Fold:
Amino acid sequence: MKRMLKQLAAGAVTALGLTLATVPAQAADTIRIGSFLSVTGPASFLGDPELKTLELYIDKINGSGGVLGKKLELIHYDDAGDASKARTFANRLLRQDRVDLIVGGSTTGATMAAVPLIQQAGVPFISLAGAETITTPVRKWVFKTPQSDRQAARRILMDMKDRGFTKIGLISGTGGFGASGRNVTKEEAGNFDIEIVADETYNPKDTDTTAQLTRIRNTDGVQAILNFDFGQGPAIVTRNYAQLGIEIPFYQSHGVASDSFLELAGDAAEGLRLPASALLVADKLPKSDPQHDVLNRYKSDYESHYNESVSTFGAYAYDGLQLAVQALMKAGGTDKAKVRDALENIDGAVGVTGTYRMSAEDHMGLTAESFRILEVKDGGWALTE
Amino acid sequence: MFSEFFQFTFSGVTLGAIYALVALGFTLIYNASHVINFAQGEFLMIGGMGTVVLMDAGVPIYFAIPLAIAMAGVAGILLHRLAIAPAKNADVVTLIIITIGASIFLRGLAQVFWGKEYHALPNFSATESINLGGAILLTQSLWILGIAAVLVTALGLFFTRTALGKALLATSMNKEAASLMGIKTGAILMMAFGISAVIGAAAGVIVAPITLTSYDIGIMLGLKGFIAAAIGGLGSSTGAILGGLLLGLAEAYTAGYISSDYKDAVPFVIILAILFFLPNGLLGSRAVERV
Structure:
């Protein structure tokens, strides 16, 4: 028995040695792109389209000859929305798989858990998660493709200012997204000469918000109301808004920019405005729009391949991969420092989410203008300008 | 000024009616076994989500609702047969813990098979809200209150006028004596779970046009319903309605007159005060400890 165990152990060691030995050989003829995404678990609505997008486009790129004459190789792990798993997988990508760069991190938690390891190892990392903390303060090796909620708040306030509003009411959920949105809105309002005269909250699980809305409506001088949250809360707020017959303009955040929100809120959503990715109105964009071609190509590629609706989350992965490919081409190889510098110098890369202009001070590269203000019209999305 | 007060009151009534209807579901199983069934919220979820899923499959709403409610009834009976009955000699606390486990299990099943999205059910009446003195009252909350009133009356008659109801009360008072008198206590308990599930599922369908429904709707509604039932006095149907309305009005007035930030603390303050001054709730029967 003992001898057998010893033999087994010896076999395992040899096998391990063999795999380790083959790694550098492989690395020479492919470019290794690592990824950890929340493909299953509570954040699967993010990770699932992200992985599908990465797989689809890596196949496409390899089909047309790869990058710099080398094939791209995707090494992917599913962190199931668990930050500690994300850290473990990031470690494996860095030490064992020796990837050339990482595109991944569906959630802010997963991203931030992996950031210290990635910073230490010095590998370019493009995160697909939203929070501002990922790139503020700027970290040498960390970039991200989605806008932060600050850009969304700015875009909303910009539209309010254009319509001449100076006094608004704010109603937000007490969950992480709503609380953060409330903070940035309050911080940014002054820059647009807008005063928040009513500030109400609700629990994300609440089933009725008419008391809060009545308070806002009865505040003197309120010209518009903004609801900053995601999930089903905004659907309930929107329904209550209509039930109370409130007439003043209503805004939602980018958190509910999806067709499922329209289904939940129904007729009550008619006329409200929100900032959203141009992807939602890809077919309605004028041909002259700089993003028109990129958006429609991504939409038709994804929808014809997977036979399901494209999502803005998958678009973050599309943009991440395109930025990575651009940086690799510019760097002329996989030298990590050169790729990182190339990423930082990306200036005017037209993506699905927006047009990226990175710099040493900004590792996200999008402005508030990358959001489009949409209005709900006849149960669908319509561009306002 | 008055229209504001009316609006807060109507908001409170809407919330309160929902809590009251959920609270009613706790009374039956509690009366039969002194078990607080923490899977009650999941019966609501089965009612609401079941209706949505059946409607998505093309079943018209008049059939989808009774089918979903029947489905919950079966789930209630299975819960008793598979989880509660095998642990028949366990004490009440163990049984309560079993119901918590069952609630997590049911929620998990719904998440896997019915998905994680929120869904809306259509209003029962064509007009969604009516204007009274400048304030808006949802017609659906009238439906909820009406059905809650019917259920309270029916439960009252059931406990006082029917042999089954009396057998159920007898089982809760003294299980051994009841079985010596020829009452099949196992079957009685199973029935209590089945009927509770049906009441819960009906509640889940009726509140869904207001609250929306999803696999995890039972957590919040179940908890608030339990608090309402405890305020009113566990086991009393009228108390459950009173407790629910009190809780809903308190939440709405706090959100309206003080600050929405404090709204979520209200249920806990109320329940602390009630348990301190009236340990058996507003209408609960005084527990007699025999030595």
Confidence is low (pLDDT under 50) at residues 16-27 of chain A. Chain A is about 45% helix and 20% strand. The first strand of chain A starts at residue 30 and ends at 37. Residues 2-29 of chain A form the longest helix (28 residues).
